[in-house]
Amino acid sequence: MISFENDYSAGAHPRILDKLKETNMEPLPGYETDHYCESAAEKIRKSCSCPEADVYFLAGGTQTNAVVISALLRSYEGVLAAETGHVNTHEAGAIEYTGHKVLTLPEHQGKLDAGELRAYMEKFYGDANHEHEVFPGMVYLSWPTEYGTLYSRKELDGIAAVCGEYNLPLYIDGARLGYGLMSGETDVTLSDLARICDVFYIGGTKVGALCGEAVVFPKGNAPKYFMTIVKQHGAMLAKGRLLGVQFDTLFTDDLYFHISRNAIEAAHRLRKILHEKKLPFYLESPTNQQFVVLKDEIYQKLQERVALSYWDKTDEAHTVVRFATSWSTTESDLKELEKILTEISETR
Amino acid sequence: MISFENDYSAGAHPRILDKLKETNMEPLPGYETDHYCESAAEKIRKSCSCPEADVYFLAGGTQTNAVVISALLRSYEGVLAAETGHVNTHEAGAIEYTGHKVLTLPEHQGKLDAGELRAYMEKFYGDANHEHEVFPGMVYLSWPTEYGTLYSRKELDGIAAVCGEYNLPLYIDGARLGYGLMSGETDVTLSDLARICDVFYIGGTKVGALCGEAVVFPKGNAPKYFMTIVKQHGAMLAKGRLLGVQFDTLFTDDLYFHISRNAIEAAHRLRKILHEKKLPFYLESPTNQQFVVLKDEIYQKLQERVALSYWDKTDEAHTVVRFATSWSTTESDLKELEKILTEISETR
Amino acid sequence: MISFENDYSAGAHPRILDKLKETNMEPLPGYETDHYCESAAEKIRKSCSCPEADVYFLAGGTQTNAVVISALLRSYEGVLAAETGHVNTHEAGAIEYTGHKVLTLPEHQGKLDAGELRAYMEKFYGDANHEHEVFPGMVYLSWPTEYGTLYSRKELDGIAAVCGEYNLPLYIDGARLGYGLMSGETDVTLSDLARICDVFYIGGTKVGALCGEAVVFPKGNAPKYFMTIVKQHGAMLAKGRLLGVQFDTLFTDDLYFHISRNAIEAAHRLRKILHEKKLPFYLESPTNQQFVVLKDEIYQKLQERVALSYWDKTDEAHTVVRFATSWSTTESDLKELEKILTEISETR
Amino acid sequence: MISFENDYSAGAHPRILDKLKETNMEPLPGYETDHYCESAAEKIRKSCSCPEADVYFLAGGTQTNAVVISALLRSYEGVLAAETGHVNTHEAGAIEYTGHKVLTLPEHQGKLDAGELRAYMEKFYGDANHEHEVFPGMVYLSWPTEYGTLYSRKELDGIAAVCGEYNLPLYIDGARLGYGLMSGETDVTLSDLARICDVFYIGGTKVGALCGEAVVFPKGNAPKYFMTIVKQHGAMLAKGRLLGVQFDTLFTDDLYFHISRNAIEAAHRLRKILHEKKLPFYLESPTNQQFVVLKDEIYQKLQERVALSYWDKTDEAHTVVRFATSWSTTESDLKELEKILTEISETR
User: Fold this and answer.
1) Contact at 8 Å (CB) between D213 and D57?
2) Which of C172, C189, D162, D304 could cross-link C200 (Cys pair, CB 3.0–4.6 Å)?
3) Residue B8: which of A11, A205, A238 has the nearest Cβ?
4) Rounded mean pLDDT of chain B?
């Protein structure tokens, strides 16, 4: 069965597996002190135009969010996020487990608004009783968002400006970073992100790795003893090589960007197909996730032949579903989808 | 340079990499719901003679300890462990980070003593003020221990009996489980372990996997919503296949046991070499870790040609070092070590 | 200066101080094991018609909420509360500090709606991915609410019914319980509350005590070793007598109810005065808190002569303020307020 | 029955109750912003010769320890304490509940040794793997200790010197501070303590208050937003006046010191009586706690007429018990004890 279920249903890009095999018997020190980790970090520094950056590798996104956020906040602070932010919805309370509140702001197709952020901060410090409340201690946003949407450079700069005024570190969750960077509809580069925020991560799990996210503190501004914090969270792999080799491969010859582009090109084709089939969009994104509203009978038939994601119900008879392309989506997957949609529409 | 530094300096057993490659492009559902995870779990159930067991896969040992221990304890309880227990010493406070105290008992070559455990429990409940103290809520032991030593079946039964009396779940950390099971000097089988304890884990990271530990609740006694707890700890991999495929491979054709035996055979040869070279043992273990005391000048020379682990200082001029064999140690590594030791002893 | 700032600006009811003095030199065992605590508990059991109730005394409201909520929830669960619930807004993240998310529902003058609660639960369990989300594990509501409003018996029964269906403990924050019970506009009795919920607390701090809240588990259903949990939170007073004597006094000769009635009668007079002065109500409550909207110039003048509480801004030129009466409000306070309001309105 | 059970079995010094009564109806702002708190803080600053000190009031000792320690430590740090330190033994895991390990050092009659502390720190930083361990982040000691013993000024200076070298804040638990300061056998003054450490608390609960401890950051070095941290721990009383009035009274006309002296004089008499009765001391302290070893039959008889504390068993037939004097011990209590001991010894 073809799959548009998500961007992590296949394994890893074949070059990663080849490299793991090639380096397999080389004895290496543990805990990310090996030379593949160092090489990967150096390549990432170059890609970000941040020669001073501190780079660390963690295994997964929720883990990364919990480690970074708890490392940056003081005990009485919480993290500001959009209501739909991954940290607020789909991480089983991982942030609260570290003792911190997720403070929510309205979302606009998954995005925060700089004006609303400023208003929140003004209201907070304007309240005579604010010392009885959770202090907003940092801002979390995802780029692309959980809806596949993208902040423009101007929007990011606007948020960063408010963060600067209030001394709030800005953290960007880049679980699908590659798909944002390769979107034809963005004016944001990796260097822009590194310049704008205080810490971000480059997603591997959803962009061709077996697992792994690269955390970047662009100004060499990692919290002291960050690796001990990682260890304390149970987030440190003994065989750091698994992460080092993967990111070293992804950042060799721009592989990360090439495979991300594949997802974007596939998403363009997908959008075209969905439009041609006249499936109404719930949200049409500039990246690899597309949301359409299906009649439940169509949804049911489709599910038998295509793996896709349930998103929400709009009413008794309709369901929002997500189609995701990825680095591994093929032309043949798309053709097959087109054929299936045609067949289903004919039998309606 | 040859390495006896630890048992995680090489990558993975080649069959694992082959299987990862072979299954790579198969689209699979995430979060350990794929059929490789199920197949691996089923093979583990068979190996343990526990058809009812709940089996989960986590990425690393510290993570597994923190998740399992915090899932089993009530807030006012702590975990009993030997002073040298990994949870007490080398996990950067991961257990305390979850809010629980590690309550320590004396260690005997890394092992707990059932009598001392009972005495602890009697004293605790005998103290009129015990409701102001941390309640002992479970027992943690490692098998093999951090020193490579092994509890006999009788010793484990003795500890389990005290646990039974006081209703303390018994948890066995099996980071190096294979090396214990394949030791010629044990009377404990995998089925014994599954019968004796309430939960244990089968270490993958140190026994041939890239990463991964299999947590087994032998009586189908996993805490409710255990996967949500795993997620909350940031310990759930999106691509559960990475763990499923690895453990499925390790438990196919007894690979886990065969490669563990290799480490034990290599350890035998190693012990023989160390004895022949008259290096005094600090602790000679029945598994893959051997501890010897070196004059510091020897240590220095050796370090230049062999990777090994610093353990402790015994006095100003001597150092305890650890030699570890593993599934990947070769006859040629051992010969090279022998040669190096001979050369160094001749130049003394 | 007269004060309508809150209901904890005076000390304690004089009978409490007398009793503290009278019992002062009696040597008593610590940690709430003294006979005053037992006597107070017994009187509370009688008042609640709950002979089996477990009763504990804690020092303050935020503390009580954090202890009770964390004691009832499993690690992967959060507490459902109205957006305006005290636990969500004014406790500096005390709940999150214990590792749990506050899951919010819409508020209607500070109240939850049973239908919205059911809808939330249905949506949660209807979501295929709910195991990646925080499980709703209990319901928190305050009676009276933070706005002084009261759930009717029918409303409470409705919420309790949903709780029953989903096995959610229902917890009632009674920081101002007396003021609710003595309101002429309620059909809820203390016995009703004890019947309807799983745990509640009877507020002392805001109803005549120096400090102290009595936690009641009406069905003898306190979590095991609750006092150890209290101790672990740093919430156990060595001199439990301080709480025991106070609650013993408050529940002797219905003092708690008599002094609560005083606040309600004073609130009636207050409402009348505010109406006469034509100050527009933001929210007119059936208990001791009244919210009016003031032009900022009036607010400024008033502040110089009457202590009251800032609540919110409605626009550039208007402020919501709270007037609170209490057990200690006197007729002379009210007359003085009336006079001041008259004078201010004349100078407008 | 007379009581030597502890130093918190009576209520409060009568002057405290008088002052509470006198100030009772004065309307005051909440949360320690009232003028009694400020006056008390100012008097404490004077007593400590620390005009810059930050002073806060909390309700109890375990609470104070948990709040101060968690406020000072980074997430990856633990607190160093003697094995017998209150934070390690009798606080139900309150420190671990905040996520931090208590790192233990040997105790010598309850005291830490500066040399052992330095050795610990050297070993820690000398260990190549220390980034996998809990970082020692501060030092906790109690003065007097849990055994009533006292560090000399030289001993404290020695510990503070090591703390200074390693940048470890030094925290002194002064639950029984007055009894130490008034001991004839100390060369340490309140100003010395304030000079030597980074933070300490002046115990009220055990020295004449109903509840309350005054936390002093002598160099004005309180962590930012300390009151929010206090609130987050549920440790802030709405009626801060309860603590302010008590400490204001205790530090007016040296009441705190006068009543502490009473306990010390009573302890002298007690020691004399115990010596005369030839009861063997387990530990004879220079403060208000005395430990003797009793034959169990004597212990049993004594218990019927005198309240005292069980401490430990030395063997099958003997028990260590603690006699504590306090600010409230009277000459008549001592005479009665003498009489009882005489009668019991005669009937042997």
Assistant:
1) yes
2) C172
3) A238
4) 97
How much is the pLDDT for B348?
57
Looking up tokens 């501004």, which residue turns up? Answer: A221
**b/e burial code for range C4-22 (CB count within 10 A of at least 16 → b):** bbbbbbbbbbebbbebbbe
Tell me the average pLDDT across B129-149.
Answer: 97
- Residue B98: closest CA among chain C residues belongs to which residue? C99
- For residue A90, the chain C residues in CB contact (below 8 A) are 129, 132-133
- The pLDDT tens digits of the residues spanning B80-111 come to 999 999 999 999 999 999 999 999 999 999 99
What was the pLDDT predicted at A348? 57
* Cα–Cα distance for residue pair D35/D156, rounded to 1 Å: 34
D225 neighbourhood in chain A, CB within 8 Å: 74, 76, 131, 135
Residues of C near A (Cβ–Cβ under 8 Å) read 75-76, 78, 89-93, 96-102, 128-129, 131-134, 310
Q: Which region among B170-179, C137-146, C338-347, D153-162 has the lowest average model confidence (pLDDT)?
A: C338-347
Q: What is the pLDDT of residues D20-37, one digit of tens each?
A: 999 999 999 999 999 999
Q: At what angle do helices C241-250 and C255-276 cross, to 10 degrees?
A: 70
Query: pLDDT (tens digit, 9 = 90+) per residue, C157-202?
Result: 999 999 999 999 999 999 999 999 999 999 999 999 999 999 999 9
Structure tokens at C218: 């009406």
- Cβ atoms of C336 and C2 closer than 8 Å: yes
Intrachain domains A2-7+256-346 and A14-253 with the same fold: no
Ramachandran assignment for A217, one of left (phi > 0), alpha (psi -120 to 50 degrees), beta (any other): beta
CA dihedral of A222, A228, A234, A235, whole degrees rounded to 10: 30
The C-alpha atoms of residue A69 and residue A147 are separated, in whole angstroms, by: 22
**Can you name the CATH fold of C14-254?**
Aspartate Aminotransferase; domain 2 (3.40.640)
* Mean pLDDT computed over every residue of chain C: 97
Label residue A66 exposed, middle or buried (CB < 10 Å: 0-12, 13-18, 19+): buried
Cα A207 from Cα A61, distance rounded (Å): 12
Q: Match 């582009």 to its residue by tokens.
A: A261
Fold of B14-253: Aspartate Aminotransferase; domain 2 (3.40.640)
Name the minimum distance, in Å, from the CA of D146 to any CA of chain B: 15
What is the mean predicted confidence (pLDDT) over D249-258?
98
Question: How far D125 CA lies from chain C's nearest CA (Å)?
Answer: 31
Q: Could you tell me if C156 and C113 are in contact, meaning their C-beta atoms sit under 8 angstroms apart?
A: no
Distance (Å) from the alpha carbon of A136 to chain C's nearest alpha carbon: 11
**pLDDT tens-digit map of B259-274:** 999 999 999 999 999 9
**Which class is C2-7+256-346 in CATH?**
alpha beta
Q: Residue C299 — left, alpha, or beta (φ > 0 → left; ψ -120 to 50 → alpha)? A: alpha
D227 contacts on A by Cβ (under 8 Å): 131
Q: In chain C, what are the domain boundaries?
A: 2-7+256-346, 14-254
* Farthest-apart Cα atoms in chain A, separation: 65
| Tens-digit pLDDT profile for residues A277-317 | 999 999 999 999 999 999 999 999 999 999 999 998 889 89
In angstroms, the CA C331 to CA B115 distance is 72
User: Closest by alpha carbon to A10, among A263, A283, A337?
Assistant: A263
Contact between C54 and D230 under an 8 Å Cβ cutoff? The reply is no
What is the rounded distance in angstroms from the CA atom of residue B277 to the CA atom of residue B272?
Answer: 9
Among all residues of chain B, which has the CA nearest to that of A333?
B27
Confidence of residue C348 (pLDDT cuts 50, 70, 90): low
Q: Is the peptide bond before C286 cis (omega within 30 degrees of 0)?
A: no
SS3 at position A138: strand
Residue D307 has phi, psi (to 5 degrees) of: -80, 120
Q: Distance from CA of residue D110 to its chain's centroid?
A: 12
B127 — pLDDT class (breaks 50, 70, 90): confident
